[in-house]
Design brief:
With about 170 residues, this protein is mainly alpha-helical. The protein is built from 7 helices and no strands. The chain has helices at about 5-25, 35-45, 45-65, 70-85, 95-120, 125-135, 140-174. The chain is globular.
Length: about 170
């Protein structure tokens, strides 16, 4: 199978699983999307593919859930999470992933809630309105924060276990 086909299959596979994670019942903002945006540069070197996977998942699930006015801000912040992970990836470690996970969850919260304040009529366009917007979003931020840390930890454990197992299989049988 060609490299292009393998890459396309990988994008569709991971994007499909991520899209499904947004469609099954879950607490608000408790999905692995940001975790995957953070973790993809750990798995693959191509930053564009790493960005594409969570974005395709978001788009597929948004086709079902409905398009919204803050998509640009949400998608942009997810891209920034991947870029943050890529730009700070000097050595692959859980410490790096944990710090980028925290930074990405905070960045997503700040950007997307600023977008809510800026583009909706729910809050007055004042400093008090902005503070109220961020305050009302804290429960969502808690879910984003916990899910990002949890899912990155699970992805790290699965990836490292599979990598070690593959090395063992390779030595044993190939």
């Amino acid at each position: 199978m060609s490299t292009t086909k393998k890459t396309l299959l990988m994008i569709l596979y991971y994007s499909g699983i991520l899209a499904l994670s947004r469609l099954i019942p879950h607490p608000p903002n408790f999905t692995p999307i940001i975790a995957m945006a953070v973790f993809m540069p750990y798995m693959i070197r191509d930053v564009y593919t790493a960005m594409l996977i969570p974005l395709v998942a978001m788009f597929i699930s948004d086709l079902y859930l409905g398009m919204h006015s803050s998509m640009f801000w949400v998608y942009g912040s997810i891209m920034l999470c991947t870029l943050l992970s890529t730009s700070t990836l000097k050595q692959k470690s859980l410490t790096h992933l944990a710090s980028v996970s925290v930074g990405s969850a905070v960045m997503f919260y700040v950007i997307t809630n600023f977008a809510v304040w800026l583009t909706s009529t729910m809050y007055p366009k004042t400093l008090e309105g902005l503070v109220m917007c961020y305050t009302m979003a804290i429960p969502f931020f808690q879910n984003t924060f916990v899910s990002t840390i949890l899912y990155v930890s699970v992805l790290f454990a699965i990836y490292e276990t599979a990598k070690r197992s593959y090395s063992w299989l390779k030595r044993q049988y190939l």
